């Protein structure tokens, strides 16, 4: 069967209209839209029979019903519930309600604390990131911090900070100073006593 749109059968009938009837399921009973000639002509009937054989697997695939796994809904809902238990904010409980501090706010507080440490020359906000139990999420704020669910006491705060320090200073000591400053800042301003601070020293400058 040629794909030439102008091809005709020996009887003079064009090929394409018959092929179109086959692909639409209209070339045989109970939905037969062929005219009297096409039903009786040996050439038209042969073309339709050949096209039906070729098109049958396609029609079979189209009619197949895909059955979803029986636990699909349960799996999706479990994933949604996990997202609800992993908020990107710190929860501070109170007698009259909980206060939630966003990732951006915690990050800005951490960055501010790092800038106040002597010999920290730059805080690289684009190098910092937020983390939740091993997962990562790019923050929009300067530094990165996230509350990890920890029961009624609020949760643990993880902070990643990338900095550039002065040449000639003790890098471990400077990192410890940054770590201590961030912890004090977040404890004083966001009531986050359990703070883990990872420092990335990306460069030194004279």
Automatic annotation (TrEMBL):
What the entry lists under Pfam families is as follows: Asp23
- Official protein name in the record: Asp23/Gls24 family envelope stress response protein
What is the protein's species of origin? Pseudokineococcus basanitobsidens
Its family remark reads: Belongs to the asp23 family.
């Amino acid at each position: 069967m040629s794909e030439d749109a102008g091809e005709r059968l020996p009887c003079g009938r064009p090929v394409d209209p018959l092929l179109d009837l086959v692909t639409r399921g209209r070339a045989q009973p109970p939905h037969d839209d062929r005219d009297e000639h096409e039903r009786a002509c040996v050439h038209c009937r042969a073309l339709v029979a050949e096209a039906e054989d070729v098109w049958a697997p396609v029609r079979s695939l189209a009619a197949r019903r895909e059955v979803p796994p029986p636990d699909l809904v349960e799996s999706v809902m479990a994933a949604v519930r996990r997202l609800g238990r992993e908020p990107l904010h710190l929860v501070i409980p109170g007698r009259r309600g909980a206060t939630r501090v966003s990732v951006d706010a915690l990050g800005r507080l951490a960055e501010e604390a790092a800038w106040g440490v002597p010999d920290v020359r730059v805080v690289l906000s684009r190098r910092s990131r937020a983390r939740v139990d091993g997962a990562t999420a790019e923050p929009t704020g300067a530094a990165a911090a996230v509350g990890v669910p920890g029961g009624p006491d609020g949760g643990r705060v993880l902070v990643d900070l990338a900095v550039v320090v002065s040449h000639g200073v003790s890098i471990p000591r400077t990192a410890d100073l940054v770590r201590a400053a961030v912890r004090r800042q977040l404890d004083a301003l966001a009531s986050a006593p359990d703070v883990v601070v990872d420092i990335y020293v990306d460069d030194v400058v004279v």
